[in-house]
Amino acid sequence: MRSLSVRVIAVTIFGIACCSCASEPPTREDARRALVKAATFFHSEVSSNGGYVWRYSGDLALREGEAKTTKTMIWVQPPGTPTVGQAFLDAYEATGHQLHLDAALDAAHALVKGQLRTGGWAYHIEFDPEKRQEYAYRDVPQRKTTRWKKATQLDDDTTQSATRFLMRLDNILGLKDQKIHEAVTYALNSMVRAQFPNGGWYAWWDRYPDGHTLPVERFGGNLADHPVLRASYPASWSRTWTKDFSGCYVINDDLMADMIAVMFDAYDIYGDERYLASAKKAGGFLVLAQMPEPQPAWAQQYDRDMHPAWSRKFEPPAITALESQGVIEALLQLYRRTGDKKYLEPIPRAITYLRKSQLRDGRLARFYELETNRPLYFTKDYKLTYSRDEMPKHYSFVVDSRLAELDAEYRQLLGTDPAELAKKQGVQRVTPELAAEVRSIIAGMDARGAWVEQGVLDAHDLKPASGVIECRAFAENVRTLCKFISAAR
Questions:
Q1: Which of 397, 426, 461, 465 is most buried, by CB atoms within 10 Å?
Q2: What is the pLDDT along the chain (489 residues), one digit of tens a residue?
Q3: How far apart are CA 70 and CA 471, in angstroms?
Q4: CA distance linking residue 141 with residue 341, whole number of Å
Q5: Which alpha helices (H) appear in 339-449, and where do they start and end?
Q6: Are the C-beta atoms of 327 and 251 separated by less than 8 Å?
């Protein structure tokens, strides 16, 4: 699952200045040189089989994704290979430099090698020739394998991020790289087939695409067993973890918003009406999934009767403030793209309810008890409680409120002519703040072209003396440099 800890991307203390003078404003050429230096280091020194994990020790001796990794493994789950690949494409589009496109191509072909016969991707990809035989990769002979070595993962933006990156590259290449284009088509077809009749998706599936909705066998029965219903409260629910993962339809970890983004991108690039229909159908699910009064917001996961359902042992059937704010963002995006006000209709009720549910400090509980609306927490041994005194630290049981911003955006959209919704933002300009940020980023590179931080390798439970190289920091720094280059034209 997506980590909920906040990692600060700091400017490294190991850096050296690359601008002609640290006090002078950076130039476009300074930013271009920094991009080449950073991309060359990442592509030639950090990459393994064309792909990437999450973070590395500064000396590149240790590497990890959500778990420890070897040099024969790359990570798909963000901020892994698709995240780095997107950064290379940002750099290519900002500069036109072939080096960046070559790096993106290598990352894409690494992802193609890890595509599963079920259509998408698992959290990581294995390149060791013997270990690869244990996985249901499309280029590996079919044989019996475990569920988790053949299951397409929508959890944590895994398959979605890989597909978005490959689609973007496919478009840049004019659909001429046959392997990339075919992998994208295969992935998109599997996602369309995996969508339930009500527009929702489950977090994964382990059946091969054969023309019917993929996850049905996972839950038993056929499509008739999955009627299109509005969300409602169950007559009762277990206060202890059921361990049955009976939920069918998942909102947790922005799954629905990520899928909607994929389908809109696919429609924009390929013009296939199936993808636009899938995005709208997913938006229809979000409308259906809004709970009735007295809690008109959303749960993390629903069963086939559209009742909130247990997920992990610290994710109960409840109203969830974090995911509800994410759903509101997704509904705003759906309205921007379609101009259909049915996507705006749920928002005022949800914002009013969530505002009334804010804690004394202005934040929100992650979970609110069904119907009573009492904030729910967990003890360190995972028992439901109304107290915040003994919460586990690995999960955010109290979250920030973004209601003011969401409400302002909603009101702005209400007052915008629908014909203006899809227009792009104006030209970016170089501000003193952007120039200062770019100067700091360039100065923060070491002699290799690496951004090294003081930090911890979580999976190793180690603070390396050589520091830590973060793929997320690389992508964010590249994005800022590209923004500066574009604005400085």
A1: 397
A2: 554 333 334 433 334 344 444 568 899 999 999 999 999 999 999 999 999 999 999 999 999 999 999 999 999 999 999 999 999 999 999 999 999 999 999 999 999 999 999 999 999 999 999 999 999 999 999 888 888 899 999 999 999 999 999 999 999 999 999 999 999 999 999 999 989 999 999 999 887 654 444 444 454 445 556 889 999 999 999 999 988 766 689 999 999 999 999 999 999 999 999 999 999 999 999 999 999 999 999 999 999 999 999 999 999 999 999 999 999 999 999 999 999 999 999 999 999 999 999 999 999 999 999 999 999 999 999 999 999 999 999 899 999 999 999 999 999 999 888 778 766 555 678 899 999 999 999 999 999 999 999 999 999 999 999 999 999 999 999 999 999 999 987
A3: 16
A4: 49
A5: 347-356, 403-414, 432-443
A6: yes
What are the backbone dihedrals phi and psi of residue 319, each rounded to the nearest 5 degrees, phi first? -80, 135
* Rounded CA separation 470/7 (Å): 10
Look up the pTM and report it. 0.92
Provide the token pair at 303: 């069963």
CATH fold of 28-487, please? Glycosyltransferase (1.50.10)
Q: Which residue's structure tokens are 């929508």?
A: 154
